[in-house]
Every structure is written in C-alpha cells, then in structure tokens.
Amino acid sequence: MSTVPPTDGPGSRILSLARRLDEIAGVRDLEPLRVEAELLQRSAEQLESSGLALEPLLRRCMRLVSDLLDKMEVPEAEAECWVVLADLHDQCQEPTDFRRRAVSCFNAAVPFYADHRSGSGRGGWRLTGRRRDERPRWHAELVLRAAFQLQYDGQPDKACLYAERASSLFTKAGYRDEAEESQRLAELARGTSVASAPAVVPAPTEPAPVRTEPPVRTRPPQVRTEPAPAVPTRATASPVHDGQTVPPPHRSPVTRGSTGLLDVIRDLRPLPFEAAERDDDARRSRDGVLTPAGDRTRFEAARDLTQTALAQTQATRHEDALVVYAMAQSLWSGLPGSELLRAACSYGLSTTYSALNLPLEGAAAARTALTLVDAVPAARYYHDMCSVRVEDLYGIVADRYPVQEPAEAGAAPAEMLLELAEYTLRLTQAGDLGAGLERDVLESAITTARGARFELQPAASALPGARTRLARCDFVLGACTVLAVGYGYTLRHPVEADEAWASLLRAGILAEDGPDAEDLRTRCAAMTALMARLTPFADVARRSDLLRESLDRFLAASQDLAKA
User: Fold this and answer.
1) Which of 148, 164, 309, 481 would disulfide-bridge 500, Cβ 3.0–4.6 Å?
2) What pLDDT is stored for residue 313 in this prediction?
3) What pLDDT digit, counting tens, does each position of 256-267 carry?
4) Domain layout of the chain by residue ranges
5) CA angle at residue 547 from 546 to 550, to 5 degrees?
6) 10-120+130-195 has CATH 1.20.1630 classification
7) What is the DSSP secondary-structure string of 235-258?
8) What is the pLDDT of residue 122?
C-alpha cells in the first residue's frame, strides 16, 4: 500500500486508486472488489486519453470516484476513495472534510489487521493463507496512511501520535525503512505543531491573554516550499503612535521544508482594530468627512461584522469566518473614510485564506489591505505589517503557479470561455427564456465559468488585469447559483451554498482597483444581499448562534444593496 499520494494529473490519481483497490482485493481475497478495480482502471485510461480540459476532467474524475464510493463496503477501500476525492478537490482549491472521513475509515479497518491471532476478519472477510503473515505490516500502513491525512488536514498533533504509533508497529514487524519513514513524518508533524504554537509572554502587571493561532494547513511533506525572503528593515526605531511606541512586526518562526501557508507568514497578528477605528474617526473629523444618516446603520454593522469575522479567524473557525467576511465586505463597499477598518478586515481575511490553503486569494486580500493603508499618509505604521504579509504570500503564489509571459494574458480559450459565461448570465437576467431553457443556460454558465477559472488562475498570479478576469468568473459562479436557487431550479451538478458565499467573496477580493473593479464589487455586494435572503444560503449562516446574529445584522443593514 502506497503511503504518499500521487502528485500528477487527475487521471493518474484514478489509476493509482485502482491499483490500491486491487491490492486490498488481494489481501481481503475479494473478487468483487478486484472487478471494480479493473473497471476503474479502464475508465481512468479512457479519461487520460479523452483530451478533456483540466476542469471537465477533474469533475469527471470526481463523479467516477463518488459513484465508486457508493459501492464500497470495505473500510480501507472506502478510505482510499475519500483520499483521492480530497486530492481532486484540493486541485480545485475547494476545502473539504474528506481527509477526516478517510481517517475514520482507516481507523475502522484497523481491528481487522490488529488481531494477528485469528485468520478470519470481521464481517466474514478473511486473509488468504499467504497473506496472513502480512497483517502486521498492513496494520502499520493503515495507521501511517491516517497520519499522512491528518498532517495534510492541518492536525499536526494527531498526525505525530499516529506516525509514532506506525513507527512502533513497523519496528515490531521488522520493517526498518518504513519505521524510519514514519519517524520522519512524526518529526515533521512535531515541528509543524511547535511552529504554529503561540508564544505567551506574561506582562509585568497582569497576565497577557493567550492567543490561539490558526491551525497549519499542510500539503504532502515531500513538496518543499521555501519561505519568502526577509523584508529589509526600514528603520531601527519603532514608530510612535498616540504617545506609545508601536512594537515592530512579530517574526513568527518559519519552518523550512514545511508547506503550510501559515508557516511562511512571519507575522500572524491581526491589524490593531481599535487603533484603526480611532484613526478613522479622527481623520473623518479632521477632513470633514460625514457619514450620511442612511449609511450609519450600514457602517456600524460593517464594523461589528468585521470584529466578528476577526474573532472567528482568531478562533480558527475559518469556514464560518468566510461567511461573516462576505457580509462585512459587502457592507464596506462605497463607505468613505473607513480605509483602515476595511484594511483590518482584508488583512484578517488573508489569514483565513492562508489557513484554508488559498494563497492567491490570501495574497489579493493582503494586497487590498496594503493599498488601503498606503492611502492614509498618517498610518504608515501599519505599512510594514501589510508589506511583509504581501511578500510572504506572493512568494508562495510564485512557487505554486508557473511564470507566464505577458503575451499569454489574453489567451483566447480563457477569454472566450469568460465572455460566453457572462453572455449566458445576461441571457437569464433578460427574463425572455422558458423555465427549462433558463435552467440549462444557468448550468451552462456555471460550467463555462469554472472552465475559464481554471484557465485564468495561473495568469492571475502575476499578470496585470488577470485577477479582475478571475473575479468576473467568480461573480458568474455566485450569481448563477443565486438565480438558480431563487427560481427553484434543480441543477444536474448542484453547487453547495458554502461555495456561493465563497464565490462572491472571492470576486470582490480578487477585483483590482479601477472603475470596472468598483462596479464589480458593487454588483457582488448587491448579489450577496439578495443571496442572504434565500433560505438555502441563509441556512448556512444559521449554523451557530453567532452566525445567526451576524446574518440578522447583515439583513437589517443591506436593504439598499438588495435594491441595487
């Protein structure tokens, strides 16, 4: 059983899954599972030779594994399916809990191999005579496979325990190389856990509150990502603000050889929210910038929702944080004199995106924060924190995506796909189509926008204007989903409600400065306000009392956005 997932294309992942299932069928002596493995292999070979673009190929592979998963009755085989599904969704940059499900299945399979005294397994399964002596090795490999998935899922403490257990089992079974591999993983997980742990320095008078850092999202340990180069020191002295010395950015320990995005972020503190609020208030008063009475409710709601989102980020509840950030970002749109508070919101969002292994979005959010801070001359003391964050994340983006020449910015396939997606969206908004046709057009727009996104994503890492085009793709995805749900259509390939929240948030974050970008952000804000009033999306925001209160606050403050 292989312990390291493949790093090549989706078709190769399916072939590897077929080989692992064949192994399990041999150990379990299950002919039906062997037949399924052979069918899966043939399907994977057909997909590899089909010439499909990446996005359709990924979706076909996901569907293939999902259909196979429904037939699985062997826990370790089910676990391997969950692992491959997690790999495929990671390639789409779609967060899932599939690795945790895989770990549960691996744990469910362990008793079958842990009982070395009996030749029969649970539920009538059995090992053939020649395989019976391999039970200790397979027992250890299941534990090691679970350890890898825990490490990928950002649970280094558990991964360390599992890896040490696997090392002990391999040692007892006489497999020295495998034991050493397990020990290396344990050491990596232990180092990741230490690097992400907050440093608590007691104050002279009263204890300082313990800050909980977000968990480190790691990827396969064999991939090496070097941290971004250090930023040159601007000055030897710390800046002074409101009569107090503002401490220089805290340099969190950087773990070389780890691939978690939070590992390369040298300062995980949020921007000082209360100081930003005071500075915004003082600047509005000094410059005579008045918040219209009609916008006051929206301003106060945006401020409170930003604080809520930042608290969720600090508590490492990043999926919930994204929903609140989507609300807050929509409300901030078009409010003057709030640049520093908006910067704090975008800066915190960059931390959450990093924890969710979304470097492109995290870098864009950090860049937005830096742009807002630099627009306020009297707030240069925030500049270093923002610039360090930008350099850290863009270093990861540069490592992850290939460098493209400027001539590739207007690549015909991507541009055509994007224009087609936007055209189909306009068709549905015209209201001249029948219900059946309208549903098909919406589904076509979603599929086309996904294809365009995959084509544009590498260019969005470096080329001017590419992030705006990527933002247009995300707007189409979010808007079409909202329209489909609003009309009561059932799509053949349903889009999760969480994905709609995330799509509209990404669209507003990825949009660059400029008239078109501002228009796009306004449209995203209006669509978010509409979406929040639809039950399927509102249900997502009712997962907890805190999210429910946030949704109620957002709905009360977004009347004008909904009308727009």
Assistant:
1) 481
2) 93
3) 233 467 777 888
4) 10-120+130-195, 406-563
5) 90
6) no
7) -SSPPEETTEEPPPPP-PPP-TT-
8) 39
